[in-house]
Specification:
14 strands, nine-stranded mixed beta sheet, binds S-adenosyl-L-homocysteine, globular, binds N,N-dimethyl-L-histidine, three-stranded antiparallel beta sheet, 36% helix, alpha/beta, 331 residues
Length: 331
């Protein structure tokens, strides 16, 4: 563990070590040698990728962010009153904008004590820790830079009050179905009987609305998608030409998820020097970069149940675009 920042009120620990640089290398080795090439979406989020994601959140076509913010706006006070929560653990915290609504509610209830953001992106954890510390008097922030698939045991132990563990934005939908249940099971180990999981999930809806959200007219999602190639170029000394790849995003009705892919517009021979690996792309060949699952209430309930959790409350918007579920350890 590397301590990235430490003052009386702010501590940020990084669990991303040299091994984690190898995690990208190993993922690239596995993913680019498969018959159908694939890379994990967690590698999008270097500083530029996190910035591009924040721009996506502002796009008119990208409904999830504003819809989830609306739900939180309406429900945060009730959730805090129901749980008496004084701590917020946020997994995949990004810019921590949504956390503010929960922190405001805890402050208003007089219970606010500590915020624990965890993200793979060091810049977002550091920036959020600094800004939130300034904005909330007396708040302690303990940031964790790490991978929520591997570093959840480094989330600090609870202190006095019950806590909320939040995974918002629909990020759970970016994991494949089996991995998703594994992630939820690990998250369940963070919960005591008084604690609650807040899970933000995008819902199944009109396919045109979904596909527009991933094919915005300003091309920001396309740049976000290509950023993965910039990351591999920089981190592994590769020579992808990102402009030789088209952004592709479509809704797969059978799996009920969006697939984002990068399609080679011409034959490409790519050298990944650090791995001593040459990868060939035929013209038209695709690399899958992300799935983004769209849920039904039934599917969420069965995933929660498989992870030893039970649904307690279900909050959605008036068009049923997005949902926030509150769940607890199954009794
Ligand atoms: N929660 C925010 C950000 C969502 S974007 C919101 O709702 O707007 C997804 C965030 O999850 C990014 O900040 C990304 O860096 C982080 N992330 C993605 N995969 C992760 C992983 N495996 N472990 C930890 N963080 C991850
Ligand atoms: C972070 N995650 C939930 C986003 C999503 O919608 O699946 C990432 C994203 N990909 C393209 N646009 C946004």
């Amino acid at each position: 563990m590397r301590s990235v920042r430490e003052t009386a009120e702010v501590q940020v620990d990084s669990w991303l070590t040299e091994d984690d640089e190898r995690s990208l290398a190993n993922d690239v080795l596995d993913g680019l040698t498969k018959p159908f090439k694939e890379l994990a979406p967690k590698h999008f989020y270097d500083a530029r990728g996190s910035e591009l994601f924040e721009r996506i959140c502002e796009l008119p076509e990208y409904y999830p962010t504003r819809t989830e913010l609306g739900i939180l706006h309406a429900q945060a006070a009730g959730i805090v009153a129901m749980t008496g929560a004084g701590e917020l653990v946020e997994l995949g915290s990004g810019a921590s904008d949504k956390a503010r609504l929960l922190l405001d509610a805890m402050r208003d209830a007089g219970t606010l004590a500590r915020y624990i953001p965890l993200d793979v992106s060091e810049t977002v954890v550091n920036d959020a820790a600094q800004i939130l510390r300034e904005d909330y008097e007396g708040l302690r922030v303990h940031g964790v830079v790490g991978d929520l698939e591997r570093h959840l045991e480094h989330v600090p132990d609870p202190e006095a009050a019950p806590r909320l563990v939040a995974l918002l934005g629909g990020t759970i939908g970016n994991f494949a179905p089996g991995t998703r249940r594994g992630v939820l099971s690990k998250i369940a180990t963070l919960l005591g009987p008084e604690d609650r999981l807040l899970l933000g999930t995008d819902l199944v809806k009109d396919v045109h609305v979904i596909e527009a959200a991933y094919n915005d007219s300003a091309g920001v999602t396309a740049e976000f998608n290509r950023n993965l190639l910039h990351v591999v170029n920089r981190e592994l000394d590769a020579d992808f030409d990102p402009e030789a790849f088209d952004h592709v995003a479509f809704f797969d009705r059978r799996h009920e998820w969006v697939e984002m892919r990068l399609r080679a517009t011409r034959p490409c021979s790519v050298l990944i020097a650090e791995l001593d690996l040459r990868v060939e792309f035929a013209a038209g060949e695709e690399l899958r970069t992300e799935i983004s699952t769209k849920f039904t209430r039934e599917r969420i309930e069965s995933d929660l149940e498989a992870a030893g959790l039970e649904l307690e409350s279900w909050f959605t918007d008036d068009q049923d675009l997005f949902a926030i579920s509150v769940s607890r350890l199954a009794g």
